[in-house]
Each structure stands twice: as structure tokens, then as C-alpha cells.
Design brief:
With 303 residues, this protein is α/β, with parallel strands linked by helices. The chain is built from 12 helices and 10 strands. Helix 3 packs across helix 4. It is elongated.
Length: 303
């Protein structure tokens, strides 16, 4: 039985052009992140029946296909360095009626890989995009971490440049949901140091080799994990799960809004809201845990 592209509703674009009649579909097929038994029946069937398979690393994908005795009609390379040329070509095949399965090296395609660009291109052409769910490293690490799962924020890999890392992490300082990062073994210790500098010594879980023989979860504070890694060289790909800002930290930050203000600016803040200078000085003194005389003397010194 060949694959049938079925959609009960395909929303047209603003210009009124939807998927052309007779065009194929883009299937996003999850592959195992380590344990081959995590491959789903639906994923195997989809790869067997699709006309084209596009892979981030064709050598890696050939091993997977061989294991499940899948012989693709067409196997295309689609990765970060050729996506500009390969993307439009793959879209053309789909428009001509071919069904295309996109896979990444491991896990869900379009998560921290160029598959997201192909999906956007397909959507812009009115092509149906169909997810074939399966294993995912970030969520696997999260559910086994012991940290809150009600709300989480996926960041993926941090930038390479230090200034860019600081920019990203500074925006996460007040996020109260659990944070999820990907990292390679040779950078994980440095990334933990950046996290400690930006977020403080929070609880963290390092998950590596997920679903594989040497799967490991390291739980502790960031400082404790850095110390552990100094004696146990990192191996394998990591998911770093970091607790979000606690309510206590948020309340402290809210109550300390004035910390970056000078005493003069602090008093002026209250005066600008209509408070008399005498009362503004009293409020500033209360915020800072100082006597009103200390505020008065500090203002005199600044004059």
C-alpha cells in the first residue's frame, strides 16, 4: 500500500494559493537518539513508502535504513551547508507529486537542525507538513531530571561567542520555567561556567548518552557538576537541564529593583511619583535598610 497524502483541511495562504492538486507531502520522521528499539512502526512504514528521504548525514541514515531493511528510491543530502540549494529542489519534487521524508541524525527533525528551514519553505508553498513523532533528547532528559516539568523553555545550543552567550543568558535570568540546553562534551564544562556566572549556582541535571548503554544522569548544583567533570572527563552528547528562577529569587529581585540606582536616583524615583522629598528619603532609607540620616548625608556629599 503506497502512502496517501490526506488532509481534511489545508489552509490557503494570504494570496489564496494552497497546495497544488496532486502535490506530495513533507513528513518529519523521528529517528532513535541511541536505542534503535525506539524507532516507531509508523516511522518505519513512512520511510518505506515515501518516494524520497532527505537526511542530514546520509552515511548515518544509510545505517539506520539498512537495519530496518529499508531501500529508499531516492536519498538526498540536506544539511546546514547545502540547504539553500537543496531546499528548493526538494520542494520542487514535492510539488511534482513526490512524498518526502525528512530525518535528522537523531531525534526529531527541525529541532536544532536545518529541517526548520525546509518546513518553513514547504508551508510557504502550501505543502502539507506531517509530523511522525518519536524520541527527543531534550524531553527525555526533562522528564527524568526531577526538576519541574509543568513549564519549560528549550534553548538548544548556545552561541559560540562569549558576548552572544551573555546576551542569551541575561534574557533567561528571570525565566521561572525549567531551561533545556544541548551541548557537546568538549564545551559542557565551559557552558556550565557561563550558566553559573549568569544564573547563579542553581540545581542542574546533566543527561548524557540518553537511551544508550552508558546513559547517565548527574544531579547537583552547577558548582558540584563542574567539580565532577574536572575529575571525570565528559563523554557523549549532553542535555543540560537547569532549574528556573525560584519564586523567592523573583520576589527578592522585585523588592531590590533599586539596586542599580544611586541614592540620588532612588530618592528622585519616589519624588517623580509625587512623594514629598522628606518622605522619598524615608522610603529610600527603608528600601536600603539604612537610617534616614544616612540618606540625607549621602545626598549632601553628592551636591
Amino acid at each position: 500500500m503506497s502512502i496517501q497524502c490526506q488532509s481534511s483541511f489545508q489552509k490557503n495562504t494570504v494570496e489564496g494559493t494552497g497546495a497544488a492538486e496532486g502535490s506530495g507531502c513533507l513528513y518529519l520522521v523521528a529517528t532513535p537518539i541511541g536505542n534503535l528499539e525506539d524507532m516507531t512502526y509508523r516511522a518505519v512504514r513512512t520511510l518505506q513508502e515515501c518516494d524520497i528521504i532527505a537526511a542530514e548525514d546520509t552515511r548515518q541514515t544509510r545505517k539506520l535504513l539498512s537495519h530496518f531493511e529499508i531501500t529508499p528510491s531516492m536519498l538526498f543530502s540536506y544539511h546546514e551547508h547545502n540547504k539553500a540549494a537543496s531546499g528548493p529542489e526538494l520542494i520542487r519534487y514535492i510539488i511534482e507529486g513526490k512524498n518526502l521524508a525528512l530525518v535528522s541524525d537523531a531525534g526529531l527533525p527541525a529541532i536544532s537542525d536545518p529541517g526548520a528551514d525546509l518546513v518553513a519553505l514547504a508551508v510557504s508553498h502550501g505543502i502539507p507538513v506531517i509530523p511522525i513523532p518519536g524520541a527527543n533528547a531534550a524531553l527525555s532528559a526533562l522528564i527524568a531530571s526531577g526538576l519541574p516539568t509543568a513549564s519549560f523553555t528549550f534553548i538548544g545550543f548556545l552561541p559560540r561567542e562569549r558576548k552572544d552567550i551573555r546576551t542569551v543568558l541575561s534574557g533567561l535570568r528571570t525565566v521561572q520555567s525549567t531551561l533545556l540546553f544541548y551541548e557537546s562534551p568538549h564545551r559542557v564544562a565551559k557552558t556550565l561556567a557561563h550558566l553559573q556566572e549568569a544564573l547563579g549556582n542553581r540545581r542542574v541535571v546533566l543527561a548524557r548518552e540518553l537511551t544508550k548503554r552508558y546513559e547517565e544522569f548527574l544531579r547537583g548544583t552547577i558548582e558540584e557538576c563542574i567539580s565532577w567533570l574536572s575529575e571525570h572527563p565528559p563523554l557523549g552528547e549532553y542535555v543540560i537541564v537547569v532549574e528556573g528562577e525560584s519564586k523567592e529569587e523573583a520576589e527578592l529581585a522585585e523588592s531590590s529593583w533599586w539596586r542599580e540606582l544611586s541614592i540620588e536616583q532612588h530618592v528622585a524615583h519616589y519624588e517623580s511619583s509625587g512623594v514629598m522629598r522628606k518622605d522619598a528619603m524615608k522610603k529610600a532609607a527603608s528600601d536600603r535598610g539604612l537610617a534616614k540620616r544616612d540618606i540625607y548625608n549621602a545626598l549632601l556629599e553628592q551636591e
